[in-house]
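Duplicate of earlier report; Alginate lyase domain-containing protein input re-posted below.
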Amino acid sequence: MACKVSFFCILALFAYAFGGFVHPGLLHTQTDFNRMAQKVAANASPWIDSYKILEANWEASATYNPNPQSFVNRGSGCTPSNTMALLYDVAASYQLALRWKISGNNSYADAAVRIMNAWSPKLTGIGCQNGSSHDFLLMAGMQGYQWANAAEIMRNYSGWNTTAFNQFKTMMMNVFYPITTQYPRGLAEYANWELAMLAANLALGVLTDNQTIFDTAINYIQSGVGGQGPLAQSIYYVHPGNLGQGEEAGRDQGHNTLDVSHLTVIAQMAWNQGIDLYGYANNRILAFAEYTAKGNLLVPGSNSTYYTVPYIPMNVDAWPTEYWENVFANGSIGAGRPTWGCIYHHYVNVKGLAAPFTGKMLALQTPEGGGGNYGSNTGGYDQLGYETLTCTLDPISKGSAPSGLTAVLVGGSV
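Output:
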């Protein structure tokens, strides 16, 4: 693996080499929280701008009251319709945990713990009662990794006793984990399904200190077959110019950009445990981010013309149909997700690589919020957000020397 030289990186490498996980060590480490707190205390932009959005979010209030359910349904025709109860409370758990780590105010920590303690003894299942939708798989994946991140932040809080923390982990393993192990599978072959479930597995592996769960997910992401989650399938083809066409680029841009979010989450959590998926296969995730960002950006000076990106037709085996996607989709083109900060700053300000289109897309979203700031439906809770606050890094003077380069001959020039 490759890693930026720092005390934390050495710690992560040591922990992975000799067993055990870094805690907190999912999307954010203690080093990250120290940076956030320092920047917010200094009233420094853009960190403070995103933090102010967090402070104003109704879900980040210390008086937030949870709404636990015994069974949560998601999908058309599934009854009772109570999806949002879980989505709201998961987002609130994370936002309150962030406010605690940055401000040091225990009222936010107590509120985050109150939410998780309300759910852990009550929730027994998620699915689709009285219907046939499989959308609950998405909920298990997305809210699974999101909730694990909230719990990982709170795991050492003195106000969350060991018994309650263990009860929460048991709930996550009994309810979420059995569903998120369903990759590869035949019911849904779009990349975002498997990527969401893989993100949940990585997060649960760290949260519960289960190396087998974590390693199984890593191995599948790197070299798995049979589904669309592995990097070789989710990033379907790399065009000249290092532009990586995603598996859902021909479907619509709402889902294509969602894959950016999922891959960022996966790569960031792995990085914080000493594994460099960001750099895997010649920075394949960077190629995907650049391709997807470019295809969703307007040409400068235009109000309606988007950049053209290369595209090769691909066959999609999406149950229960199989069909060809022949062009870069314009459905939901220009989709804005609060999801470009971590991926941009890692490649540019950790590795010193260029990510111009990713940077332009990030600029359109900055400063961003999270759940509760992007609508009240499920799509508004597809990602945790606040990446301006959590992932922005000061610029570095220069990057490391490039390595592992691949030469591509185009028109007689490399």
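The chain is about 50% helix and 5% strand.

Merging into the original ticket.
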